[in-house]
Target: Fibronectin type-III domain-containing protein
Amino acid sequence: MDSILICFFFVLLTPREIDTRSSKRISIQDDGTLEITAVRASDVADYTCSVFSPGGNETRSARLSVIELPYAPVNVKAVRLDTRSQRAVNVSWTPGFDGNSPVIKFIVQKREVGDLGPIADPLPTWVTALSNVSAEGPRWVLLTALKAAAAYQFRVSAVNSVGEGSASKPSNTVALPQEPPSGPPLGFVGSARSQSEIITQWQPPQEELRNGQILGYVIRYRLYGYDTSPWTYQNITNEGSTIHVSRAARSTVNPSMTNFRAAQSTSSRGPLYRQSKHDQL
Model:
């Protein structure tokens, strides 16, 4: 008594008979088992095997799902929040295919870019900003650990039970505005040059505290010991300056930086350097 085994697979509800001669990856074993090796995404389908014999017919179906890495998210967008209280950028995205395994979390990365594109660096320039964004939450995050006067791009990747998938394409570039320096000038020194002059010198603040391009400085000074006297101000554009004093006396010189904001005519001063007491002229 002979039996006939016929196997079909269904893709989008269209049945097609399996031809084991068309692929070395697909075979039907002697016991009727359908075997597919080196499974790939194109093999995902509903499979049905039917046996026909004089003693009766039998049909069994199974769904083949290939679990793989999730696809990269799409539509990654970055928008700067117009707030003075913090440097904030909202990054949003649309999840891609989950690889037939629920996405567990998302990873958000950032990189700093220059006027002509990403900053050249022999090492990877992408830095992880958030490594555990819940997949059950909203599809956006608010990033605040950013530098002033810098431009950024962002990208997002998804993680499922298989691992981390490919990262998305970089977002649009977002530029943060300049801010007043958050640190004082360094190494401020001064000495009497003559009976009417004091020469002063200093260095710019630490680079990470400049918050933009330093366009100038403001030095203020007054006679030493005259604490109630008004300060005299002098605007300068370099780290060395000569102050002309109208009378021979001790003086206290206290400079602060001035950092002009882009497209604005008003200045924003950073913190003052500590007072410096100089010798009597």
About this structure: The radius of gyration is 35 Å. Residues 1-5, 9-13, 245-267, 277-281 have pLDDT under 50 and may be disordered.
